[in-house]
Design a protein that fits this description.
- Helix 1 (about 10-20) packs parallel to helix 5 (about 135-150), helix 1 (about 10-20) runs parallel beside helix 7 (about 290-305) and helix 3 (about 55-75) crosses helix 7.
- The protein is built from 7 helices and 16 strands.
- A hairpin with a 5-residue loop joins strand 15 and strand 16.
- It is globular, with a radius of gyration of 19 Å.
- The chain folds into 3 domains: about 5-75 and about 135-185 and about 265-315, 3-Layer(bba) Sandwich (FAD/NAD(P)-binding domain), CATH 3.50.50.60; about 85-130, no CATH class; about 185-265, 2-Layer Sandwich (D-Amino Acid Oxidase, Chain A, domain 2), CATH 3.30.9.
- By secondary structure, the protein is an alpha/beta fold.
- Strands 5-6-4-11-12-13-10-14 form an 8-stranded mixed beta sheet, with helices on both faces.
- The chain binds glycine (GLY).
- Glycine binds near residues 42, 190, 222 and 262.
């Protein structure tokens, strides 16, 4: 076998598929720990929504989003990919000011931003180019595509990268990556609710969170908590999310409630590159793992094959301090 990947979330699966497509034998090892971000996420594809200023991360997110149509087409499955924009609402003067700042820098950076009217909101902005994907369907479709491409899967916990069954090792284990290598990545808990409520037409941000249409119902997210590897939903989290839902005009019965662990780094940028011992790292995607999946798969393939990476990796060097 040529390559072994630690981590079977979206990043590991996309990397495996890219490498298998280039003719390599790939094995993915994953324990199936609860709280995996790929499964828990809301699937927002928001290079503008998650950005607060111009940065190398915004460029990386934008380039990855550009790859999405082609990426999902290759999967031969409906993964709920939509490019129907996102809506941002401000209900307080401070939120209005934040939206105005976004309008200024994003317009100057060449992004499309449109002003809207929205009942009950002091200000509304539309980002018409953003979108969403059903991240759970995407996990399943990627896994199926990997299986068709003869990627092997092993369900087991790793205590060391030495246990990976190949010479070329790739670490894509999200928050758990720090348990396998000395890396500045840590879990940040995010809780989400599923409400039995009419789905909004598009993703809506506001009131300290967001609402996402999901199979005719509505996801409400998300908390940001430092709780270690504890991925248990809490009553406090539920109350916080119900307040966000009310602010955004959603009620409805609670159908489900879960939490995931975002892999966060000190500077908020992912870790993409090679460690001094040769291990390839693709981790720390924080709030943008679903969005960064297509580009990260390509980056990992280029690193494994010794090709020029498709983007400048210097800002994402996993050894940076
Ligand atoms: N990208 C949405 C979140 O992390 O909550």
């Amino acid at each position: 076998m040529d390559v072994a990947i630690a981590g079977g979330g979206l990043i590991g699966l996309a990397s495996a598929l890219e490498l298998a497509g280039r003719g390599l034998e790939v094995t993915v090892v994953d324990a199936g720990d609860p709280g995996q971000a790929s499964w828990a996420a809301a699937g927002i594809l928001g290079p503008q929504s998650e950005a607060h200023e111009p940065s190398p991360l915004v460029e990386l997110c934008t380039k990855s989003y550009e790859l999405y149509p082609q990426f999902v087409q290759k999967l031969q499955a409906d993964v709920g990919f939509r490019q129907n924009g996102t809506l941002h609402l401000a209900f307080t003067e401070a939120e209005v000011e934040a939206l105005e700042q976004r309008l200024t820098w994003q317009t100057q950076s060449g992004f499309r931003v449109e002003q809207r009217k929205h009942d009950g909101a002091l200000k509304a902005l539309s980002f018409p180019d953003e979108g969403q994907v059903d991240n759970r369907k995407l996990v399943q479709a990627l896994r199926a595509a990997c299986e068709r491409a003869k990627v092997k899967f092993e369900k087991r916990a790793l205590t060391s990268l030495e246990e990976l069954p190949a010479r070329i090792k790739v670490l894509c284990a999200g928050s758990w990556s720090a348990k396998l290598a000395k890396l500045p990545v840590a879990p940040q808990k995010g809780q989400i609710l599923l409400l039995d409520e009419r789905a909004p037409a598009q993703v809506i941000f506001g009131g300290g969170g967001y609402a996402v249409p999901r199979n005719g119902r509505t996801l409400i997210g998300a908390t940001s908590e430092d709780a270690g590897f504890d991925a248990t939903p809490t009553a406090e989290g539920r109350e916080q999310l119900l307040r966000i839902a009310a602010r955004l005009g959603f009620a409805g019965n609670l159908l489900d409630h879960w939490a995931g662990l975002r892999p966060v780094t000190p500077d908020g940028l992912p870790l993409l590159g090679r460690l001094p011992n040769g291990t390839i790292v693709a981790a720390g995607h924080y709030r943008n793992g679903v969005l960064l999946t297509p580009m990260t798969g390509r980056v990992v393939a280029a690193l494994v094959l010794g090709e020029a990476p498709p983007v400048d990796l210097l800002p994402f060097d996993p050894s940076r301090r």
